[in-house]
Request: fold
Amino acid sequence: MAISIGDIKKLRGETGAGIANCRAALNDSNGDFNKAKEILKQKGLDKAAEKFDREVKAGVVETYSHGGKVGVIVEVLCESDFVAKTDEFKNLAHELALQVASMKPESVSDLLAQEYIRDNSLTVDGLIKGVVSKLGENIQVGRFERVELGGK
Reply:
């Protein structure tokens, strides 16, 4: 089956995967976009697992305040300053702060297991792995703290 450049661009736009990976996924799925997305997702998760043991020594500390009543500080770690400065990484840190503010996880492992608030088909761990597959570096939540006005 011939895969058009337009199809490759569309899949790349929706997934953020590389051109060669998009072409291969479309070929493997006989042009089926949903199957191609699943193939890319699986490849991304496999790549994320390979990167998990790499040392994380850079990152950002993201803060968020919800109406002055709830405050969150989240440490999100990656391998390099270059990735820490990307919009994709900064957005992930912000989304994690929002998650902590709204869902009140008890620990990092609890946070990772939660359904992502913007897309309940994803866990927070799946969200992070998706960013890992796009940026190509290990990303981890170091720690977080949530403070609520009048709370303990």
